[in-house]
Amino acid sequence: MTTHVTIIGAGLGGLTLARVLHVHGIPSTVYEAEPSPTARAQGGLLDIHEHNGQPALQAAGLIEEFRGLVLEGREASRALAPDGTVLLDEPDDGTGGRPEVQRGELRKLLLDALPAGTVRWGRKVSGVRTLGDGRHEVAFADGATVVTNLLVGADGAWSRVRPLLSGAVPEYSGTSFVETYLFDADTRHPAAAKAVGGGAMFALAPGKGIQAHRESGDTLHTYVALRKPRDWFAGIDFTDPAAAAARIAREFDGWAPELTALITDGDTAPVLRPLYALPDAHRWDRVPGATLVGDAAHLMVPSGEGANLAMHDGAELGKAIAAHPGDVEAALTAYEQALFPRSAAEAADAGRLHELMFGDSAPHGLIAMFTRHEPTVA
């Protein structure tokens, strides 16, 4: 009997899984809470890595199409001091080892490569329960239910599927990002555009930082980082965009105006993004008929690996299911045995990276890493 896979969540991990299954002739259905693929913005640039994200796209049969989405020159990176002095300036070397693409375009590529009707939009999960014998019932907010013999939670940080397998709950990392955009930056915000350059820019100090990336066209996408408790951010009225931006910018008093303009001159309201994480070594005992991919399995602070890991998870799970026809438990066991050490190592690396970025050695520890010297973490 052909296994039909039920996937909760139409992010990059769930869609990669569905596509790899389709390549192997295995049907799946993806249930997504959002009402349509364009219901919300899909985030910024992603650098897709040679060792995990690109092999996942290869397994999905989409590597050539992916190359058509790459934004040339965006692998450039630079570090600035708070006064605007350039500390590091590395141009795009043209090797394409970490090509940059827009998340929304990559998601659309995966969606368009699935059979019509694979993704069911507007299906918000309200709960999941075990029926025994590896079967699970998924209940939706509209009152509908489905029963499945193979359930995959690809539903992100606050996964509704995770409680079937694990009691772990994401905890606040102590750092939040505040997200802003500048549009038509070369024309309307030339000083900020010059500071950011052609790719990624970071200006860091202990406990804080301004990071920006040049996206398609001349859009600058900024993530302002602050190591502050949640209560501190609760004291900011984000319903008043100008006041919220001004309050965040005060944490950078004395910094170069071309850097603080990335906050105060934003063309969109600032959006608070608290960073949560699961335990670095998060794992679970084998639960018949269910598993997790992506942030549902190993939510970690941003390190440039999240999307890559989610796609890698999806591809590896899809290949494991194809390699064990009719034996769901063998497939899930093989997948999880590789997943747990891989995700634990990446989570630990992400924590070390954040310490280099926002710890007492910032920015020098991170610059040392970029220049291939041994970083010093205070």
Automatic annotation (TrEMBL):
Entry keyword Nucleotide-binding: yes
Localization in the cell: Cytoplasm
Keyword terms: Cytoplasm, FAD, Flavoprotein, Monooxygenase, NADP, Nucleotide-binding, Oxidoreductase
CC terms in the record's Gene Ontology section: cytoplasm
Cofactor(s) recorded in Swiss-Prot or TrEMBL: FAD
GO biological process terms, semicolon-separated: response to antibiotic
Enzyme class: oxidoreductase
SUPFAM superfamilies, per database record: FAD/NAD(P)-binding domain
Main location (coarse class): cytoplasm
InterPro entries the UniProt entry points to: FAD-bd, FAD/NAD-bd_sf, TetX_monooxygenase
Catalytic activity: a tetracycline + NADPH + O2 + H(+) = an 11a-hydroxytetracycline + NADP(+) + H2O
Binding residue positions for FAD: D47, R103, D295
Enzyme Commission designation: 1.14.13.-
Record keyword Transmembrane helix present: no
Pfam family, one: FAD_binding_3
Domain remark from Swiss-Prot or TrEMBL: Consists of an N-terminal FAD-binding domain with a Rossman fold and a C-terminal substrate-binding domain.
Subunit structure: Monomer.
Family statement drawn from the similarity comment of this UniProt entry: Belongs to the aromatic-ring hydroxylase family. TetX subfamily.
UniProt function note: An FAD-requiring monooxygenase active on some tetracycline antibiotic derivatives, which leads to their inactivation. Hydroxylates carbon 11a of tetracycline and some analogs.
Protein name per UniProt: Flavin-dependent monooxygenase
